User: Fold this.
Amino acid sequence: MLIRIAGLVPESFVDGDGIRYAVFMQGCLRHCEGCHNPETHALDGGRLVDTDEILAAIKKNPLLDGLTLTGGEPLLQVDAACELAHAVKNFGLNVWCYTGYTFEEIPAAAQPLLENVDVLVDGAFVESLRDLDLQFRGSSNQRIIDVKKSRAQNKIVLWSEFVG
Ligand code: SF4
Assistant:
């Protein structure tokens, strides 16, 4: 399946826990003030790649802990995001996903993605709440959510290893 990306980082140490393959997905309609990745906004920007190419690169690297879907807004290409997340879980790796939606706002069409996401960093970046000391997120409104526990308990449960 084709996916429109702004870029790929084969080994990232800042987009979640451990060593991660980060997919910066192209396209975001929010235009948050102070966004760090404005080049990811245009829906027709970036480039198209095949998800199989990404999966082959992930499979080849035994050092990876997981995949991070970020952007841009990953939920705008939910089918491709689902395919990557599902395959990566089958490799035995974990999946983090960043989104401008809050957990409560995630649209029904994106719920299948959450089946294969371990950690969701939710909410749009808010410049007035920007804090450089925060781990894995840009502003303090964003939460690092344990998706499985949150869905099981029907309330927000923060990622237990999160210390920031
Ligand atoms: S949601 Fe993320 S990518 Fe989109 S404008 Fe806001 S900070 Fe930028």
Summary: The pocket of iron/sulfur cluster is lined by residues 28, 30-32, 35, 37, 40, 71-73, 100, 124-125 (CB under 6 Å). The CA atoms of residues 21 and 50 lie 15 Å apart. The helical segments are 51-60, 78-90, 111-114, 147-153. The chain is about 20% helix and 25% strand.
